[in-house]
């Protein structure tokens, strides 16, 4: 078997046995052994809860993230290109950016009640800033020779954006999508613990509060990790398109 | 040439205003230059003499502070698809294939016509078989060929080139010069070519315009009436090359060219060498 499969597999097995051993030695009757976590996952599947919660979380992330992309990318490209717009809005962006999306939870609940819109709003915020800021920087650091080469041919301003600035910034924008989708997935779990009554975040907090079901808590955590990994692989696959490959290190 | 000049530069100057307590910086001073249709003109000069700056003014990327530039009879207002610029740091778009790059400037034409033009220029620059390749898969010389084909595709009347082969290795440069000469002969464009490489200018141009070091002004113009393809060993070639070298103020003696020679020892470079040894 290949080293790249064998080595991680060995680590996972080691973690499995160490975890099991640690629970046995500590004689904890509340912390689950690994097999109990797998049974908990089976239980969630049997009750139809796994699919329901995964879909609920993914729905919120997709809507909030898509909105952030649709607004953040054009906004960033425009602010990156038009100097006075940048000067006007950049301080506001820099002020809002360091505020953790979690800090917005009280306002989200105030505005949207316990409703899907609250976590969607939080995910939107958490993705909007990294995407916008990256797009701004990408435009500002664009190789001047590309813009000049295009102006040579007398392209209109719209064409300049569509045919040069956007494709020139795309590799960096894709990287920012990867980062912000990761953040969005972190934020949805936190938001669901407080602002709604479904989803993987809710599963974790509910399993703890309702019956100290730590097997369900750890099961939820594992599923969150797995889906986060899949999401990252999906966005990462965008980097393999020929149109953006030039923007990444050639050794990959 | 008898025909009206395509590019006419009259008493052109560029001065940057003085900063506090300092003299104003004169970059270019009273440059006058006429270039005829279909002519291949090289501008050479010591580094820092303002040759690229001059080209940027002629192309409309930069504004002069004195004099005027008429291109095709009118003052230059900015970039214009009838005149295309070829850059030293490669301006080929890495997100487009070779053929997509070449058709960048002709996107509004019908697709059949586009295909025909792309086909023609891919052949002309010798990139047949690489139409679908991306720039990152090509060598530096091939990327520069893509840029030349892209510049030719909209059928401009003038091509400006700013040290287009400066980043290439010696062998590739020689080959690119030969190919550019052949392309120029087939396409009959006016080419204004900036280089710091004197050999390059003598190999390519109908006429070499030599600029002095800062402030840049026209020191001398040398007509190169040698048949193409040029014999790089012929006495006529070597004489013209040496004439330009001497005008710039460099002697062929080893070490003599290293000093800040431009403007110091112009008329009698040989005597300078004799004195310093």
What characteristics describe this protein?
heterodimer, A: 252 residues, mainly alpha, MetI-like fold, 2 domains, 11 helices, B: 277 residues, alpha/beta, Rossmann fold, 6-stranded mixed beta sheet, 4-stranded antiparallel beta sheet, 8 helices, globular, disordered C terminus
CATH first level of the largest domain in chain A: Mainly Alpha
- Give the CA-CA distance, first to last residue of chain A: 22 Å
Largest interface pair: A-B, 23 and 26 residues
User: How many separate helices of chain B?
Assistant: 8
Shape of chain B: globular
Summarize the main sheet of chain A. none
- CATH homolog superfamily of the largest domain in chain B: P-loop containing nucleotide triphosphate hydrolases
Mean pLDDT figure of chain B: 84
Residue-averaged pLDDT of chain A: 93
The assigned CATH architecture of the largest domain in chain B is 3-Layer(aba) Sandwich
Helicity range of the residues of chain B?
A: 25-40%
Number of helices of chain A: 11
Strand content of chain B: 15-25%
Write down the Rg of chain A: 22 Å
**In oligomeric terms, what are we looking at?**
heterodimer
Provide an overview of this structure.
The complex is a heterodimer of chains A (252) and B (277). Chain A has 2 domains: 28 residues; 214 residues, MetI-like fold. Chain A has 11 helices and no strands. In chain A, α3 packs parallel to α6, α3 runs antiparallel to α8 and α5 crosses α6. Chain B has 277 residues and is α/β, with parallel strands linked by helices. Chain B has 2 domains: 197 residues, P-loop containing nucleotide triphosphate hydrolases (Rossmann fold, 3-Layer(aba) Sandwich); 73 residues, no CATH class. In chain B, α3 packs across α4. The chains are: A mainly alpha (252), B alpha/beta (277). Chains A and B meet through α7, α8 and α11 of A and loops of B.
């Amino acid at each position: 078997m290949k080293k790249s499969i064998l080595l991680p597999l060995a680590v996972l097995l080691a973690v499995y046995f160490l975890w099991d051993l640690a629970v046995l030695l500590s004689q904890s009757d509340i912390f689950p052994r690994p097999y109990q976590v797998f049974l908990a996952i089976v239980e969630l599947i049997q009750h139809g809860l796994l699919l329901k919660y995964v879909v609920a979380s993914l729905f919120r992330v997709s809507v909030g993230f898509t909105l952030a992309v649709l607004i953040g990318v054009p906004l960033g490209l425009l602010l990156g290109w038009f100097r006075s717009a940048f000067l006007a809005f950049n301080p506001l962006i820099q002020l809002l950016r360091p505020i953790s999306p979690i800090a917005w939870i009280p306002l989200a609940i105030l505005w949207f009640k316990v409703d899907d819109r609250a976590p969607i709003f939080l995910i939107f915020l958490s993705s909007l800033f990294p995407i916008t800021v990256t797009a701004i920087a990408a435009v500002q650091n664009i190789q001047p020779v590309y813009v000049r080469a295009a102006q040579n041919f007398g392209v209109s301003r719209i064409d300049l954006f569509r045919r040069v600035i956007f494709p020139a910034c795309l590799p960096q924008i894709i990287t920012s999508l990867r980062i912000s989708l990761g953040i969005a997935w972190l934020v949805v779990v936190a938001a669901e613990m407080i602002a709604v009554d479904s989803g993987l975040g809710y599963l974790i907090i509910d399993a703890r509060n309702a019956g100290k079901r730590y097997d369900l808590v750890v099961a939820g955590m594992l599923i969150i990790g797995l889906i986060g990994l899949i999401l990252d692989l999906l966005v990462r696959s965008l980097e393999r398109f020929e149109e953006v490959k030039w923007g990444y290190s050639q050794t990959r | 040439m008898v025909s009206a000049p395509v590019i006419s530069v009259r008493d052109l100057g560029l001065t940057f205003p003085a900063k506090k307590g300092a003299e104003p910086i004169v970059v270019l001073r009273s440059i006058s230059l006429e270039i005829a249709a279909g002519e291949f003109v090289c501008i050479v000069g010591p580094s820092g003499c303002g040759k690229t700056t001059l080209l940027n003014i002629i192309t409309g990327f930069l504004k002069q502070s004195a004099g005027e530039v008429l291109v095709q009879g009118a003052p230059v207002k900015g970039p214009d698809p009838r005149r295309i610029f070829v850059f030293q740091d490669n301006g080929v778009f890495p997100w487009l294939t070779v053929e997509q790059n070449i058709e960048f400037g002709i996107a509004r034409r019908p697709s059949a016509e586009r295909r025909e033009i792309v086909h023609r220029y891919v052949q002309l620059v010798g990139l047949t078989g690489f139409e679908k390749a991306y720039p990152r898969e090509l060598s530096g010389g091939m990327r520069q060929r893509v840029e030349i084909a892209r510049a030719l595709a909209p059928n401009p009347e003038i091509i400006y080139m700013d040290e287009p082969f400066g980043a290439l290795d010696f062998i590739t440069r020689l080959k690119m010069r030969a190919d550019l000469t052949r392309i120029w002969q087939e396409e009959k464009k006016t080419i204004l070519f900036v280089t710091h490489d004197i050999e390059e200018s003598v190999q390519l141009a109908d006429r070499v315009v030599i600029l002095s070091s800062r402030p840049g002004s026209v020191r001398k113009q040398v007509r190169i009436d040698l048949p193409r393809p040029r014999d790089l060993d012929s006495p006529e070639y070597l004489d013209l090359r040496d004439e330009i070298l001497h005008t710039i103020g460099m002697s062929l003696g080893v070490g003599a060219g290293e000093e800040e020679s431009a403007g110091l020892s112009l008329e009698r470079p040989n005597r300078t060498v004799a004195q310093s040894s």
